[in-house]
Amino acid sequence: MFNAPNITKPGCPRKCGNLTVPYPFGVGLGAGCSKGIWYDIFCMTSSDPPKAFSTGSNDVEQNAMEILDISETQIRLKNQISYVCFNSTAQTSPMSSDYTRFFLKTVRAPYSVSGTANKLFAVGCRDYPRFTGSIDTGLVTLTDDGTASCRTNCSSGGNNVVASECNGIGCCQANIPKGMRSYTVTHDTFDSNHSTITILQPLTAYDAPLVLDWVASNKTCANAKRDLDSYECKENTMCVDATDSGIGGYRCSCLPGYQGHPYLSPGCTGVGLGSLSLLLTLSWAFLASRKRNLTKMKETFFQRNGGSLLKQLISPNKQDDVEQVKVFTIDELKVATKNFKEERIVGRGWKCIDSNGIGNYTKNSLFHSNLLNALSNLTSLSSSNIFSNYSEGVREDAANEVFALYDCRNDLPLRTCHDCVEEATKNLLEICTSKEAIAHYEQCMLRYANRPIYNIMELKPQLYFCEISIPDGGELNRTVEPILKGLIDQATMENSSRYFGLGDESYFEYQRVYSMVQCTPDISREQCKECLMNSLNYTLQCSNGSMMSSYHGVPSCFMRYDFVSFYNISSPSPSPVPLMAINQSTHSRTTSNNGGEYS
């Protein structure tokens, strides 16, 4: 695809410094030049020449990793090397130098550590390096899914070491498993005077890249072709299951005799009639081979993920002939999750609170009834108000009082507000049975409690996350801080009709930073500023302000910035409502007794 006339989408940069960036990758975060966020390349133009970084991969210090090269199947990253050095009496290298780590941010990232292009190497005497890999992602993984190790031996003084050989004397090597999304490398050293461990065959000292296999999608070819809207292979191409990646997925390539870019229209061109017979023969052989590989891959994944146990569970019970487990089809899962939308992930951004040991309520109790009435009325109010609160059972029985409120993002239309509150209400009732709870969605916040919560600034519990560190020397911190301070001033100015501010600012040549702040309108202007300044402190402490995405939310306010635009400046927002009118929109009713990482 590098030989195609156009290797990028129209208007998109072809290079970042010395690196050629072909589609489905693209320069700029959220710039629309790539297939999606995990193919975005962050180009640091402040370097000379500019350097490219992968947004989906992180090293032991949680920094994004520099990209050295992109091929049709692999990405090469600047690697870390662990080492231990000694003089005649003691270790001279830092204590943490004998450990290194790599991890992907999420399983959605279309990468895996290549099990064919990488190897574990150790150079030194009496060293025992160990590679521990996992198919999990993130800084903390729960499984060890593949290991590799080797051992180096030397005679006294290393006299038996042979240059350019790696056979266990002064140097050892081991193959690593494929399909790993994270790993650690550690080693034990016995009477050594120097050792170096790296991944991949050593090129020169401290110049051994880490190789990742990439795929166009995590789906198989068979599944991808069922959804032609998202199918990546263009005209005159063939879909190839990426069995070498260890994580499944597929790639696209031009049919034999054709050339061009398989991921960009018009696809591949150039075959003649004389090649038709050869093409048909090769295609038939390819399809037969692909079918065998697919069958083998399915069986491997089936056994790895508990397939034998699943067979036992779904077989009918011998006594009552009833299935023990319900198996859902992919189509049923798409309907239930609205095509796997992130906001449908149950449990994200929820906190069930046992406040002051009050405990839980029981179904069909008076508290439960009051809660249902309060949340039902709030859902109705969300069709016409960005913010509302509602009380039920107040001044009757303190144990069964319910105070509830919601606050939607001010840039969103009322329909989106209503849908968010409705969805949050449904999930909150399913997840929490405590007498106090809070739900943070991207579009709204919903909370209830068995105590008064109106007109009170509250800074706990807090939901926060920060994603993808950038080694930019603090430049992002210097860019974000004045933006957020300006939005705080904008949200709390005297003539502001609501505590809300948003804006964006340029960050290097190809990138902008998008930011938003908001407070619930039932607190005072001074309390709003105090709340947002508290969120600002947390935001700037988030990896020293060098994160591409950050969110900090508490009951009374939230603050967010991102390299991808997330707010809606074109949709019709409700007319500004005076704060006094909003503060007085408290609903209450007396009833008789006759009947998400939080910290």
From TrEMBL:
Residues covered by the Gnk2-homologous domain: 349-453, 458-566
Domain of life: Eukaryota
Protein name (record): Gnk2-homologous domain-containing protein
Biased composition regions of type Polar residues, renumbered to the chain: 582-599
Region spans: Disordered: 580-599
PROSITE patterns linked: GNK2
One annotated Gene Ontology cellular component of this protein: membrane
Subcellular location(s) of the protein: Membrane
UniProt main location, coarse: membrane
Pfam families per the UniProt record, alphabetical: GUB_WAK_bind, Stress-antifung
Species of provenance: Chenopodium quinoa (Quinoa)
Membrane topology: Single-pass membrane protein
